[in-house]
Amino acid sequence: MVYSSRRDLEQLCSGVFTGLGLPRQEAEDSAKILVSADARGIRSHGVARIKRYVDGIRAGHIRGGIRPTVLRETPVSLVLDAEGGMGLSLSKQSMEKVIDMAAGHGIGLCSIRNSNHFGIAGYYAEIAARRDMIGIAMTNTAALGVPTFAREAMFGTNPIAFAVPGMGKDLFSLDMATTTVTRGKIEVAAREGKPIPPGWAVGPDGLATVDAARLLEDMLYKRGGGLLPLGGEGSAGAGYKGYGLAVMVDILCAVSSGGVFGGAVMDSEMTSARVCHFFMALRIDLFRDPEDFKRDISRMLGELRSLKPAEGARRVYYAGLLEQEAQARCEHEGVPLTDEVWKTLSETAAALGVPVPPPLAVKDSSVGQV
Hints:
alpha+beta; Hypothetical Oxidoreductase Yiak, Chain: A, domain 1; Ribosomal Protein S8, Chain: A, domain 1; seven-stranded mixed beta sheet; 11 helices; 12 strands; 39% helix; 16% strand; globular; disordered C terminus
């Protein structure tokens, strides 16, 4: 593993993006969002994806410096056509607009079509939470998920994020795919030459598969098979619930904005699909005094932390706690990257004339992934 300071890693990624022609602020915002995933331990959505961004920008599929087209606007809502802009920075800007709407009117909503991959959904929901609001963020993705009782993909991993503040640094931050796992975790397994656990995905025959590399290829070329919905195969584990949530995300993100949904959302070998997003912020004082609300959230989180763990388990967690602890460690130890990811990033940066700072440390160890 290679450990880099968060600031150095952000500057390196930002340099890559500006080297490809993105405006400085757009490049900096995009870099911070990407690195935040690695800092939280979510390696599947972090710097490892830099090559797909680079390929997409070079191919013209991802466009820098784009000003989205406003399709519809009210004091509390906004519908945008992203025109193929950088999904990371555009989503940050859009969430901030939603927060401004909520600050004035109590609620803000935004749906966006024709955008690109936006990283981790939780990043955007937490922007609202840090402004004493309830934050929600969603995106559809390339069709990788197989509906209950089907054998071909028809919806994306379609993540949902929900974040609320407690007192001080307390934060409840749910960021979940509506499939059993994300494609990023399949990519991690393929890079490391490891099989995936049974129950994560099915092959073209609709039966369980553990071959990560073959699964990625089958999904890319639409041969059938894909990721299972949250809850797993069939109805015994209530996989139809994850399936239903995935369709809900598609409706809020894509149908509401007039964008592409379902099986029509497809990746290419070069880059990720054009996708749609949905953001919402709610001012807490619509419901009650914000300080009272935050005190109760902290009390709830404290009660969850204090639960007696099951035999063999070390602790009881709540959504976002592991990621928050990982970020705190990164402030002292640096952000961990695999040797392969660091090599790809360094070579990409060097080819663009971007200086590569030395890492803080190189360790012969593995770091668990959230």
